[in-house]
Amino acid sequence: ILVNEPGWIVSGENAYRLENGIDGNKIRPFFTKDHIVIPSSAEEKYYRSFITNAIKNYEVRLQGIGLEIINTDCKPVLSLEDDLEGRPVLLLTFKYGNKICQAGYNNNCWVELSSSGGDYHFRKIARDTGKEHNYGQLLCELGLISNDMTIFRLNKTDYKDNNPDEIKGLSLYNYVEWLCDNSANIESGGIELEQSFYRVKFFTGEVKVEMNFSEENDWFDIRAIVNFGGYRIPFIRLKSNLLKGIREYLLPDGQIAVLPLDWFSRYKELFIYGKTKGEEIRLGRYHFTIAHQIEGENNDSTGLKQLEIKDNLEIPGMPSGMEGILRPYQIKGFAWIYSLYKNRVGGCLADDMGLGKTVQTLTHLWKLKKESVPDAFRKESVPDSLRKESLPHTLKKTQKAEVIQLNLFDGAENKVTSTTRTSLIVMPLSLIHNWENEIKKFTPGLSTLQYTGINRGLLLRKLAQYDIVLTTYGVIRNDLELFLNYHFLYIILDESQAIKNPASKISRAVRLLKAENRLVLTGTPIENSLTDLWSQLTFANPGILGGLKFFREEFAEPIEKLQDERKKEKLRKIIEPFILRRTKAVVEKDLPSMSEKVHFCEMDAEQKRLYESKKSEIRNGILEKLSTNRKNEMRVDVLRGLMQLRLISNHPQIAGYQGIESGKFQEVIRNIENARLEGHKLLIFSQFVKHLHIYRNYFDKQKWRYSYLTGEIKESERKHIISGFQNESDNLLFLISLKAGGVGLNLTAADYVFILDPWWNPAAEQQAISRSHRIGQKRNVFSYKFITSDSIEEKILKLQQRKSLLAGDFINLNDPLKLFTDEEIIGLFE
């Protein structure tokens, strides 16, 4: 013995180190004695200590004592436990017969001693550490991490969407879900799963969803089964869990299945937006994005036809008479509306102000009429004699192309049923005249009925005889009970932001109307909040965004208050196919350099009474002087009367009538608000300074920034005022009098020009428009001339179109009345 600790011995000329830290004193007796004698009283103790340890650590040869070397299979066991801090972990142990160890167990074998009648027998059970390491490595390859190949944890970076309310690492559910996801690989790897730590037993087998899709006319039917091992559970039974966020589901054998976390984002929408029918879930066609997404995630689906609404949009054939009228972007808009119709879903055409939402819509309705009526029997070719008999214009196609009288009558009413082709267009009263003019201009073949006024009830019988019925939001609200008896081909809402408040009577009323198809038109789908969008899209596609309470909690509040990008993207995916929005900047190449439009405005009721009263008074005075051949005296009365009627047409307050509202003012303000929301800059011209004062007062109340220029403004201040409008991004409005701003201004920051009171000399109007539409203007300019319907403004506008002399000279002639016959003078005041 050379050294005891560590043990070294010398034998001959060689030195040897004793392995495994054996103390030299332990082998000293073997060097100093021929025999080692163990008393019988200490024999068993000697075997159990010295001999057992020797057999464990060394190769030993025994004589007179039995020694059995056993190489048993290594059986790995993975169990779900808690660590010392109460966090869930996976513990890997190994079974060798009745022996259990962990990877960190120091000994590589177990030695057992047995005796019988004084004979002793040893059994040595060897571990296979190589296999143990391989099992641990397999778990790491499946995504677990471990420092000692005994305690395994999930990698937190793989669970970024984990519930933030959970503390102390990942939740128990994460581990159960991981076991379910990897159960097949664990089982094929020969690892046994055990649960004994928790009071409940979790299902850790493979979970699989089987989905079958079928497509009907207006919906998708989804039949789904969830496979929990051998249990096949109808997916519909998980509705409460998915809606309430409950992850535990009790299986028939008492095991607890933990629903995968991603199911709550992937499938929750099925129950939010779908309706349950037996064991099926029914989704509206407007939720095809949800159906297609889920179908794509399930390999067992039957396959749905992809609805093409925007992508790869096919341009349908243009209806006759519309060729060459629509600009390229308008043709695409018409094609988009037509694709909505073909796919039986509604939508929102939200093009920028002035881009022609009306003509795109009319093109679509004209297309549908052309498709529904055989060429030989289209309404425009039906004899007058038949037309007078109130023949419904909807004719049924047959192989013989026969004209069939449809039974549209129910009692005393001529009801619009699902067989008719009548479309209802609802709008603010101020737009009725504009729609009528657009229909006459672009689609005169579409018969039109204006359902407004005090005696409108008399028109109820005639609704089904027309292609288009024009009415207002107020009429729908007041006559709702009558309209509930009708089923229209289309219900179209113009300026649909009118229903932005879901709780308003108008909003609730239009959502109750019945139609095969729905479309909303607006330049400002969102004015105040996302709730505006909910109201309009819910009308177009009922149920598309769920209930209002759900929408506010799921989208409006997270997006508006928290700027939740994930919610924004989720909402965008739902609504994107059903909203078409083009701004002037997007379609600029398709626009002319300047677009001019006459916009008709209806008078306020009290304004109308005042106007008619004053008009009768002036007319009677003129007739009296004409009858007495006092034409020279009449000249001053006519000019004074024309001015009075012009002022009342604009706003009664300009003419000194306080407390009376103006329909034109309300319509101009509505258009100004729309343009402001879209970020446009406006020039607002009037030849009456008092008229501008009314708008100025309104702007001040609204706390809007604006510029103001009249002849009262000093020349030294003009440059500063113009510069402010041109260069300040939040200064969107410029009120200008004709006298101060008709010439000499460069206002290229503006792209909209509003002419509040038309000038009978078109050259003066063009000068005003040219303040914006001039060299340096990089955008297209839209000019709106606001005309009060059924007023002196409209009458002179028509005379402008008929008499070129009047257009250039009426105001400036010393005797403008020379341009009129007596009949035309009287006609101005009819």
Characterise the protein shown here.
Helices cover 36% and strands 20% of the residues. It has 28 helices and 33 strands. Strand 17 and strand 18 form a beta hairpin. The protein is elongated and about 165 Å long. The protein starts with 7 loop residues before the first strand and ends with a helix. The model is unreliable at 160-169, 299-304, 374-413 and 803-816 (pLDDT under 50).
| Main beta sheet strand tally, sense and closure | 7 strands, parallel
End-to-end span in angstroms?
Answer: 138 Å
Query: How large, in whole angstroms, is the Cα Rg?
Result: 44 Å
Percent range for β-strand residues? 15-25%
Percent in helix: 25-40%
Strand order of the largest sheet: 23-24-22-25-26-19-27
Average pLDDT: 82
Strand elements, count: 33
Q: Which regions are unreliable across 5 or more consecutive residues at pLDDT < 50?
A: 160-169, 299-304, 374-413, 803-816
The number of helical segments is 28
What structural category characterises the helix and strand content? alpha/beta
C-alpha geometry: elongated
What is the subunit organization of this protein?
single chain
